[in-house]
Amino acid sequence: xxxxxxxxxxxxxxxxxxxxxxxxxxxxxxxxxxxxxxxxxxxxxxxxxxxxxxxxxxxxxxxxxxxxxxxx
Length: 72
Prior knowledge:
The chain is mostly helical.
């Protein structure tokens, strides 16, 4: 899998997890992620996010951030 494919996979997985967890549409989650610049953060930090464990930690961090900023 190419670097770009892996980044897209991570972004897509996180969008789906958020939609499921927050009971929102994919479109709404994408809108929230764009406002919070989450997708760009994943692309910029690609080297950091290469394991499922790290993605899980990122997910928990994003949940806290989204609650603090009122995105939920």
